[in-house]
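INFO  loader      accepted 1 record
INFO  loader      residues=284
INFO  predictor   begin
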Amino acid sequence: MDINAARTFLEIVKTGSFVRAAGNLNITQTAVSARIRVLEDQLDRPLFIRNKAGARLTAGGEQFLKYATTLVQVWERAHHEVAMPAGRENVLAMGAEYRLWNPLIRDWLIWMRNECADVAIRAHIGLADELVEQVQDGVVDLAVVYAPPQRAGVISELLLDEKLVAVSTDSDRRELIGEDYIYVDWGRQFGTNHHAVFPDAPSPVLTVDHGPLAIEYLLAVGGAAYLRMGAVRPYLEHGRMHLVSGTPSFSYSVHAVYSAKADEQLMDRCREGLRVVARDPLKG
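INFO  predictor   done
INFO  writer      dumping tokens
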């Protein structure tokens, strides 16, 4: 299979249009159509339904989507490793959730530069489920995520047990849940724990799935929310936020996830660096 055909397929899925995919790939629409036609012939089923609005996946296209993504990722990984930079003996593909890049992963990358100069690193941001699945598929060597899902053949090591704490801009706040309460979606486990503690809580007026956004909004208009202690500590120290008394904290642990089949020696070195930088509380 031509890897360019898989890339073209993914570009059409992303843009929803053969025309826009052609523009983004800097090829003609005829070339895009030809690549998809070859794919459909090889798979013996149609992948897209085209109409005036653009293109949408058929049932066969939906099934092929995961494989196309993996094909492109594996190819990029192979290309990266074959074209190993001069002076490097190993290549590490790693990923992390967005909220962990500053400072944890930033500090780890600095540690790796100083202590493991023979390792070339390909790093990217992703979602926990996606990253762990990529570890399981062998596309990613190491992932750093919150609350990783269980996967066969995947090992998870606890790096840091951070806490989610209830905070408010009002120092005298007694009731956490109110009209100005911001529900931050920290994942399934948090949702379960939150419901157990606040079973009668009404549907929140505002729900967000990004902690830094919740912090900025809270500081701008006031209210209350569950946020990471590492992120709100500076605001607590300066009196801009306050812990809400009588509310529980929830665990929000950070894990290093890697395949049981990964290079053991390389994983040991990388995990040692993560342990070193995780000894300091998260600040971001």
